[in-house]
Design a protein that fits this description.
2 copies of one chain form a homodimer. By secondary structure, chain A is mainly α. In chain A, about 75% of the residues lie in helices and about 0% in strands. The longest helix of chain A is centred in the middle third of the chain and has 25 residues. Chain A is globular, with a radius of gyration of 20 Å. Chain B binds a DNA duplex through helix 3.
DNA sequence: GTCTATAGCGGGATAGAC
DNA sequence: GTCTATCCCGCTATAGAC
């Protein structure tokens, strides 16, 4: 007997079923490792229907990537673009991000790998973001805080990379961490919950 | 005219040529995305020879993975297993690690992705490491430092994850960072060089 | 819109000459 | 050991009935 995930059951449209199934499979296996058959099975429909709704594998993949990207970015921008002082941005960012990651555990790994596989996709998706001036705004915010004496002098890019590293990387390496710590899935979840405050403290102490 | 990398030229054995070519291709494309034909071209030999030296793609892949793993781990263990105090371990670790990563830029991404693709491989490679007691030794080292008042109270696992996150993640996300910062390849290299001291300071200040 | 059946080809693997 | 030629399976994609 075959176990189906919820993608099949309720009254979702076929297109939604496909998107959910494709997300699941693509995120786990990547573009190259994913099989259209597996996506169809996961969605509880036939392979040919995938081509009916999305012309081909590439197009389906792009739709999945775009959806993940659009879910991930707005909350991040909201925090970094806001006018609140840097010391408050950090815990807010961590909160949002860790929450998102718990719901989409494979998203970062997936996005990072596909960027390396097909770097030109960076431009398509990230270009508007890059030219929106978020980074410059972050840099200025840090500079001001330094001048006011709120934090010690530090290169804003190194700070930004530190913040993102400590939030994102543990999810990318979660299988490894679970083996080494060792953690059960529940314990790992708790570990990530702890990091919301733990990492905030760690960063603030360092500034 | 086809441009070949150095893999072809000098007096390496055929097996070495294959290993180098396979490393290059597998690290960039992953197991699923890599093509035996591309590896053969990169090595400047015929596809059939790959099967002569390594029975099949899977075996060749495992050889590549093992070599990357064996190059990565010993230096890390050397630092974490040593008896030097935690505050000295950190800059030493960063030095070694950043140096290794500059020579093998795709290794972490590759290892992390393949672990998720085929988790049982974690056990084969990491099991001896996990049972060697490195982690416990690290935990004890941190506890002692806390008791002596050398560092503030902190969960050793969170500390360890922070250290590794800040060293490894920037390399995993380097395409992204290069677009956002923005950095040329040379500037990114310099950025990583800066992190040797920048991250050491960041961590030590926080403790 | 959804299915079954099948075309068409890319790519891993092998046979066999040299 | 190294090559050319070829097999054959798996997978994407399409044709066409309902």
């Amino acid at each position: 007997m075959i176990e189906r995930s919820k993608s099949t059951d309720n009254q979702m449209t076929t297109e939604e079923k496909i998107m959910n199934a494709a997300s699941l499979v693509f995120m786990k296996k990547g573009m190259d490792g994913a099989r259209m058959q597996e996506i169809a099975d996961e969605a509880g429909i036939n392979k040919a229907l995938l081509h009916y709704y999305f012309r081909n594998k590439e197009k389906l993949f792009e739709a999945v990537f775009k959806r993940a990207f659009d879910k991930l970015m707005p909350p991040l921008l909201e925090v970094f673009n806001s006018d609140i002082p840097i010391l408050e941005k950090i815990p807010r960012f961590l909160n949002l991000h860790v929450t998102f990651l718990r719901e989409n555990p494979n998203a970062p790994q997936f996005i990072l790998f596909e960027i390396q596989r097909n770097p030109q996709m960076i431009m398509e998706f990230f270009a508007p973001l890059i030219h929106s001036g978020v980074i410059d705004q972050f840099k200025e915010g840090v500079q001001k805080s330094i001048e006011k004496g709120e934090i010690r002098p530090i290169d804003p890019i190194h700070l930004l990379v530190n913040i993102i590293s400590m939030s994102v990387f543990p999810m990318v390496a979660r299988n490894l961490i679970m083996e080494f710590a060792p953690f059960s899935p529940t314990e790992f979840d708790q570990f990530m919950e702890e990091r919301k405050t733990s990492v905030s403290q760690f960063i603030i102490k360092s500034l």
